[in-house]
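Much of our argument rests on the idea that a fold can be written as discrete symbols. The record that follows shows the chain in one-letter code together with its fold in token form.
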Amino acid sequence: MGNLSIITEFLLMEFSSTRELQVLHAVLFLLIYLAALLGNILTCAAIITDPHLHSPMYFFLSNLSLVDIGTISVTLPKFIVNSLCGVQSLSLLGCAAQIFFFLFFGTIEFALLVAMSYDRFVAICQPLHYGIIMTPARCLWAAAGSWLSGLLYSAVHTGNMFRLPFSGSNVIHQFFCDIPHVLKVSTSDVFNTEFVLIVVSLCCLSCCFAFLITTYARIFSSVLKIPSVEGRYKAISTCSPQLIILMLFLLSIMIAVLRDISDTSPIQNLFIAMAYTTLPPLLNPLIYSLRNQKVTAAMGKMIKRIVFPLVLGKY
């Protein structure tokens, strides 16, 4: 035990030793980061500024956009700066912060997607009671509960993972502080406790999955009973974005949990990590903006209110 060195910082993986390729990686990820920020900020701003979008569905969507901004900001900025500066190191505190906020925003997003699914269930299956069930106060409580659950869940896991010193190799074969790699160098006590926490989490997720499956089964059952084709199309168009985003999120979770970190190349590590850290925040606003005419119209009005005064002011 005396020969084991205590880890005080982690070394993140470089995807290339060539300086030009490092800069190219930084530029590509910077473009992805800016695109995700722009899409989510526009979505959130359009919902806030347009009174026609002040409804429960768009209230939850604005929260989801804020969460996506946080999610993609946890990992990409540090990687971009490291690639530009040629730095690999990440302090122990920085690693803990990345894990905490990654779990924090991930838990909130899942809770919000569950709340959004229930909102669509009430809107389609119980339209006459929608205003009574989905009141502003209940929506606020649902959003607050989502944020609080994310705080508690991330605090428990991060506190457990970093309660004892790490020893062994401090090299992380990923561009951010990935949880499986950190657990590989943790003590057996931490690993066993984390295993129990994960089993409990999976049990809770199973209950949520059962609820979601039942909810969407009842939604599509109600949609099939709508007599008019136009009514069925409208009902499907209101719930399909949530379903697509939910499936994308669940797929990213499965990739993150089931992947094998022991036998993957650097390029595979990069694409796998992008699947659950970058793609959901990048695609979520595209799914809503391209498929939702109200959000697109609100964005257009907001941009006109900002751009036209600036253009006219020059002449």
Remarks:
- The chain has a mean pLDDT of 83.
